[in-house]
Amino acid sequence: MSLPPSSELPELQNEVISTPLEKKLEYDDLSLDKEKLDVSEQVVSDDEVDDTVIQKAEDVAIQILSTEDDPDLPVLTFRMVFLGIGLSAFGSVLSTIYTFKPQNATVSQLFCLIIAYVLGTAMASIIPSHGMWKYLNPGPFNIKGKQSLFVRPIVPIQILRCSEHTAIVIMASTASTVAVGMEIIAALNLFYDIKLNAAVAIFQIFASQMIGYGIAGCLRTLLVYPTYAFYPTYISVVNLLQSLHFGGSLNYKRRRYFWFVFAAIFFWEWIPQYPFPLLTAISIVCIADNGRHDWIRNLFGAGSSNEGIGLLSFSTSWTLITQGSPLVWPLQTQINSYIGMAIGYVVLTLVYYTNTFNARDLDWMSQDLFASDGTTYNATAILNNDFTVDPTKLAQVGLPRFTATYTVSQMCYNFSLGAAVVHVLLWYWVDLKKTFGKLDFLSNSHEIDDPHYAQMRKYPEVPHWWYLAVFFISLGVGIGCSVCSLIDSAYAFQLIPAQYTTGKALMPWWSILLFTALSCFLAVALGLIMATTGFQLSIRYAVQILAAFIHPGNPIAVMYVNLYGNTTAYQTLAMLQDLKLGQYTKLPPRATFVVQMAGSIVGAIFNYTMMITIVDNNRAALLDPVGTRIWSGWVIQGYNSSSVAMGALGRELFSFGKPYYLIAFAIFIGLAFPIPFWLVHRFSKPGSLISKVAAYVNTPIIALYIGYLPYSVNGQWWSCVVIGFTAQWWARSRRPGWFNKYNYLTSAALDGGSQIILFVLSFAVFGASGNAVDFPNW
Q1: Burial, 235: exposed, middle or buried (Cβ in 10 Å; 0-12, 13-18, 19+)?
Q2: Global pTM?
Q3: How confident is the model over 321-338, as pLDDT tens digits?
Q4: How many helices (H) and strands (E) does the chain have?
Q5: Distances (CA, A) of 26 to 34, 53, 62, 235
Q6: Range of weakest confidence among 440-444, 518-522, 742-746
Q7: Which of 24, 53, 433, 700 is the most buried (most CB within 10 A)?
Q8: What is the distance between the alpha carbons of residues 561 and 548, in angstroms, rounded to a whole number?
Q9: Mean pLDDT rounded to a whole number for the chain
């Protein structure tokens, strides 16, 4: 695909490309520049707001977000502890319930933020604040002084630091993230009848999260403190927090704007979600064809799960559109993703209609395993009682097959991982060398020219040895829980049933160390890409294929690898983002550490408790491939299917010369993707168009998006294109005043309103409460 001429690349005309070789902020030593650091000089709530066009993507963190702070205001209040623990328990229970529902829903951070704001404001209004009551109610939840939400202040009001609110959000969202450990324990229970002791299970869930947190603490110098690590998807969250809590007439306007947009999407979103689902994805081509041609549905369909890849289909449902983050992703990230999808339309269609991988024998889109005759593959029919492969049974049943589109998708995800490693090494070598060359990441003194980090220096930092202690203790607990079946006395202590005390570990200790080390390495690459582009790569397929060669014929070990080779890396990313959120809102680092630990503990307990209750009471429905309208085990079934396919049959499917060997070798092929573009940028004339275009190309994003479409519903992407260019190009460059004041707040309002109504609908009519209510047929 050729790139458009320079006149059609607006981002290249008005934007200075910020490459890692050149990304130094263009201002003086901030530690000595009082004008740029003094809180009194940095007030985002004044009516005068910078209308300068944001040139570099990372500059949104400086021009959109305020650096002001009041270190004398409390954070660890009764209100924070009460709401933090309460919302953590609520969020972890709700997210676990969603895991076993047919609907694919999550408890988002914005959901926690809005609920915390409503409850915190209510507590500030109801609980007295005089006398001894001041310990329960230290003052208004949003700002100091008496002020109604919709009454404009006559005089300036001192701000209340939003760190109290931020602490609640971090604790609740940490607990609300369903740990993969819980899902794997559920899979062992459902499909292998391995029922771990409750204490072992809870410690396993907690330890798998804490290992990632320990890694994150050691990457702060590289992935939290600097300005280039700005985490685009978090800008809207911080912008909302500051708008809700900071005083001044402009923030009054912002609060009013937020609630108006929030209400508008709240009342709109129920229409495409419930009475008029046709609006979820509109395909004029499919409507005109009226179902006469399968290839039209395959290429242009987008309204139903696994219907088509959505060419020229548009959506009016923000719940779908927000998956592309069109208001918050930098335009460079979005353009690379759109290029990848454009190539994907061609590649996926050609692979299927040229009958590559015998594609025409199977469905157009599906993530299931199929037998040679196109029926669903019976994975358990090839296993012995000890869950290893029986060669005789395998010869009778045959090898499973993937659909061609799913095969391409897995290849592209692995292309992307290989490309990401080399991309980071080439473009971020200077930063990597600085951070790791002299073990600078273990130092407590850092020369980092970020105004938000400069403000945080007044607070005691979390010592590195805290994070290292968390890492090694959690690693030891994880090894102990995983290999408990090696202990002959395990049955005596009722840790696991007697039939599993065979001396064979669920996952060997050396394998845990190996995949934890792999996670440490991958977390650096994944973190740099996510921190600078907002884009999160997937490593699940690559890790499972590697595990298949290390643990051949052992599906349980391959399943457990997800904890240490996959989940650990993503827990690292989650904590890094929360650390950055704390830096943006000036939450003291030690308070961030405490609330993350507390949220993880509460989440692990309630994740397991709710999971075992659901599994024990709904086992038949969860084992059924279709499930019911109320309960479904599709998430857990996915873990089991992939562990069988890759664990039991990894060498038979992915070794060189086998049917799907290209999926495994795609990782190594992807290593070459970034090199040509880096060479062009490195050796072409600095500042030339070809140099800028080469720097603009992000091969990990393009590679992944080529295979991003063969999943679920795809009606949102063309809406994302329109909204993304309107916001991140037209509004940013032509209406910078509006963009700086309202773009990220708009994203937060749309996300928050749509997530709240989806939560209401899930329990009111979609069956999450136990009773589904269909809309009358019209």
Answers
A1: buried
A2: 0.83
A3: 988 889 999 999 999 999
A4: 36, 0
A5: 16, 15, 12, 21
A6: 440-444
A7: 700
A8: 10
A9: 80
Residue 180 tokens read as 């993969």
The pair of structure tokens assigned to 710 is: 């063969």
CA angle 564, 566, 570 (to 5 degrees): 105
In this prediction, residue 503 has a pLDDT band, given cuts at 50, 70 and 90, of very low
Of 643, 533, 607, the residue nearest 209 (C-alpha): 607
Q: What is the pLDDT of residue 570?
A: 85
What backbone phi and psi angles, to 5 degrees, belong to 383? Answer: -105, 150
What tokens does 581 get? 């959120």
Three-state DSSP state, 404: helix
Lookup: tokens for 352: 């299927």
With a CB cutoff of 8 Å and minimum separation 6, the contacts of 507 are: 482, 483, 556, 557, 560, 561, 564
User: What residues form DSSP beta bridges with 370?
Assistant: 376, 401
**Three-state secondary-structure class, residue 136:** coil
670 half-sphere exposure, CB direction, 13 A CA radius: 30
DSSP SS3 for 595? helix
Tallying the residues shown for the chain, one arrives at 778
Give the separation between CA 90 and CA 326, rounded to whole angstroms. Answer: 30
The span from the CA of 542 to the CA of 417, in Å, is 8
Q: Per the structure block, which two tokens stand in for 555? A: 């599906």
**What is the per-residue pLDDT for 156?**
33
Tally of CA atoms within 13 A in the half-sphere of 285 that contains its CB: 18
528-570 pLDDT, tens per residue? 999 998 888 888 888 888 888 888 877 888 888 888 888 888 8
Return the SS3 of 108: coil
Q: Could you tell me what percent of the chain has a pLDDT over 70?
A: 84
Helix, strand, or coil here: 314? Answer: strand
Q: 144: Cβ–Cβ under 8 A, 6 or more apart, which residues? A: 157, 158, 159, 160, 247
- With 0-12 CB in 10 A as exposed, 13-18 as middle and 19+ as buried, what is 698? buried
Buried b (16+ CB within 10 A) or exposed e, 423-457: bbebbbeebbeebbeeeebeeeebebbbbbbbbbe
Report d(CA 261, CA 315) in Å as an integer: 18
3-state secondary structure 444-457: CCCCCCCHHHHHHC
Amino acid at 426: L
List, as one string, the DSSP characters of 469-507.
Answer: HHHHHHHHHHHHHHTGGG-GGGTTTTSS-GGG-SS--SS
Q: How far is CA 528 from CA 107, 230, 446, 572, in A?
A: 25, 10, 18, 12
The DSSP annotation for 601-666 comes to: HHHHHHHHHHHHHHHHHSHHHHHSSS--SS---HHHHHHHHHHIIIIITHHHHHSTTSTTHHHHHH
The dihedral of CA 336, 339, 344, 350: what is its sign? negative
**Pure H helices in 246-280:** 249-273
**Do 36 and 62 form a contact (C-beta atoms < 8 A)?**
no
Contacts of 77 (CB under 8 A, 6+ apart): 138, 164
Evaluate the CA torsion angle 15, 18, 22, 23 in order and state its sign: positive
Please check whether residue 50 is in contact with residue 740, taking contact to mean a CB–CB distance below 8 angstroms: yes
Residue of 105, 191, 94, 106 whose CA lies nearest to 637: 191
Cα separation, 422 vs 615, in Å, equals 43
- Least confident stretch, 223-237, 341-355, 494-508, 555-569: 494-508
- The DSSP 8-state label assigned to residue 354 in this structure reads T
- How far apart, in whole angstroms, are the C-alpha atoms of residue 527 and residue 532? 8
Q: How many angstroms separate the CA atoms of 211 and 569, rounded?
A: 9
Query: What angle do helix axes 509-533 and 198-217 make, rounded to 10 degrees?
Result: 50
Which H or E element spans position 567?
none
Q: What are the CA-CA distances from residue 5 to residues 109, 538, 724 (Å)?
A: 40, 32, 20
CA–CA gap between residue 335 and residue 322 (Å, rounded): 16
